[in-house]
Design brief:
There is one protein chain. This protein is mainly beta. The chain has two domains: 39 residues, N-terminal domain of TfIIb, CATH 2.20.25; 54 residues, SH3 Domains (SH3 type barrels, Roll). The chain is 7% helix and 33% strand. The protein is built from two helices and 13 strands; from the N terminus they run βββααββββββββββ. The strands form five sheets. A three-stranded antiparallel β-sheet has the order 1-2-3. The protein is elongated. It holds the Pfam family YjdM.
Length: 113
Protein backbone atom coordinates (compact mmCIF):
# COMPACT_ATOMS: atom_id res chain seq x y z
CA UNK A 1 0.00 0.00 0.00
CA UNK A 2 1.18 3.50 -0.80
CA UNK A 3 1.69 5.99 2.03
CA UNK A 4 1.78 8.92 -0.38
CA UNK A 5 -0.97 11.53 -0.03
CA UNK A 6 -3.72 11.93 -2.61
CA UNK A 7 -3.44 14.72 -5.15
CA UNK A 8 -4.64 18.03 -3.59
CA UNK A 9 -6.06 19.15 -6.94
CA UNK A 10 -8.05 16.12 -8.17
CA UNK A 11 -7.82 13.72 -5.16
CA UNK A 12 -6.28 10.98 -7.27
CA UNK A 13 -4.71 8.16 -5.29
CA UNK A 14 -2.12 7.36 -7.96
CA UNK A 15 0.53 9.94 -6.98
CA UNK A 16 4.20 9.09 -7.27
CA UNK A 17 7.45 10.71 -6.08
CA UNK A 18 9.98 12.29 -8.42
CA UNK A 19 12.91 13.63 -6.42
CA UNK A 20 11.52 16.18 -3.93
CA UNK A 21 8.22 16.52 -5.79
CA UNK A 22 5.05 14.45 -5.85
CA UNK A 23 3.31 14.11 -9.21
CA UNK A 24 -0.25 13.21 -10.14
CA UNK A 25 -0.44 11.25 -13.41
CA UNK A 26 -4.13 12.06 -13.92
CA UNK A 27 -4.03 15.89 -13.82
CA UNK A 28 -0.23 16.45 -14.08
CA UNK A 29 -0.20 18.49 -10.86
CA UNK A 30 3.21 18.69 -9.16
CA UNK A 31 3.75 19.73 -5.56
CA UNK A 32 6.26 19.54 -2.75
CA UNK A 33 4.89 17.43 0.09
CA UNK A 34 6.88 19.22 2.80
CA UNK A 35 5.78 22.67 1.62
CA UNK A 36 2.12 21.71 1.20
CA UNK A 37 1.75 20.13 4.65
CA UNK A 38 0.19 22.72 6.96
CA UNK A 39 2.06 23.46 10.15
CA UNK A 40 0.40 22.88 13.52
CA UNK A 41 -0.47 26.55 13.98
CA UNK A 42 -2.02 26.89 10.50
CA UNK A 43 -4.13 23.75 10.77
CA UNK A 44 -5.62 24.71 14.14
CA UNK A 45 -8.12 27.45 13.29
CA UNK A 46 -11.16 27.68 15.56
CA UNK A 47 -14.16 29.70 14.35
CA UNK A 48 -17.30 30.77 16.19
CA UNK A 49 -20.86 30.35 14.93
CA UNK A 50 -20.54 33.44 12.71
CA UNK A 51 -17.21 32.41 11.18
CA UNK A 52 -15.02 34.76 13.22
CA UNK A 53 -11.63 33.33 14.13
CA UNK A 54 -11.21 32.79 17.87
CA UNK A 55 -7.92 33.05 19.75
CA UNK A 56 -6.74 32.64 23.34
CA UNK A 57 -7.93 35.42 25.64
CA UNK A 58 -11.02 36.38 23.61
CA UNK A 59 -14.42 37.06 25.16
CA UNK A 60 -17.44 35.15 23.88
CA UNK A 61 -21.20 34.92 24.35
CA UNK A 62 -23.22 31.69 24.45
CA UNK A 63 -25.85 31.67 21.66
CA UNK A 64 -27.93 28.69 22.83
CA UNK A 65 -29.10 27.27 26.17
CA UNK A 66 -26.61 24.52 27.00
CA UNK A 67 -27.40 21.72 29.45
CA UNK A 68 -24.52 20.85 31.76
CA UNK A 69 -23.96 17.12 31.57
CA UNK A 70 -24.49 15.31 34.88
CA UNK A 71 -26.45 18.13 36.51
CA UNK A 72 -29.75 19.92 36.15
CA UNK A 73 -27.98 23.24 35.49
CA UNK A 74 -28.27 25.15 32.21
CA UNK A 75 -25.88 27.75 30.79
CA UNK A 76 -28.34 30.35 29.53
CA UNK A 77 -28.26 32.09 26.18
CA UNK A 78 -26.36 35.39 26.38
CA UNK A 79 -23.95 34.22 29.10
CA UNK A 80 -20.68 36.11 28.67
CA UNK A 81 -17.38 34.31 29.09
CA UNK A 82 -14.04 36.13 29.34
CA UNK A 83 -10.50 34.93 28.73
CA UNK A 84 -11.08 31.68 26.82
CA UNK A 85 -8.38 29.14 26.02
CA UNK A 86 -8.38 27.06 22.83
CA UNK A 87 -7.68 23.34 23.15
CA UNK A 88 -7.64 20.28 20.89
CA UNK A 89 -10.68 18.04 20.67
CA UNK A 90 -14.41 18.13 20.04
CA UNK A 91 -15.01 20.71 22.79
CA UNK A 92 -12.38 23.17 21.64
CA UNK A 93 -12.88 26.02 24.16
CA UNK A 94 -11.75 25.78 27.77
CA UNK A 95 -13.11 28.51 30.05
CA UNK A 96 -14.39 29.43 33.49
CA UNK A 97 -18.04 30.51 33.71
CA UNK A 98 -19.24 32.45 36.75
CA UNK A 99 -21.60 30.28 38.79
CA UNK A 100 -20.56 27.07 36.99
CA UNK A 101 -16.77 26.87 37.24
CA UNK A 102 -14.42 25.34 34.70
CA UNK A 103 -16.13 24.16 31.54
CA UNK A 104 -15.41 23.08 27.98
CA UNK A 105 -17.58 24.44 25.15
CA UNK A 106 -17.96 23.76 21.45
CA UNK A 107 -17.14 26.75 19.27
CA UNK A 108 -20.32 26.27 17.22
CA UNK A 109 -22.43 27.42 20.21
CA UNK A 110 -20.64 30.71 20.89
CA UNK A 111 -20.01 34.03 19.19
CA UNK A 112 -17.13 36.43 19.63
CA UNK A 113 -17.84 39.72 21.42
Amino acid sequence: MSTLPNCPKCSSQYTYPDGDLLICPECAHEWNEAASAPSEEESRVVKDSNGNILSDGDSITVIKDLKVKGTSLVVKIGTKVKNIRLIEGDHDIDCKIDGFGAMKLKSEFVKKI
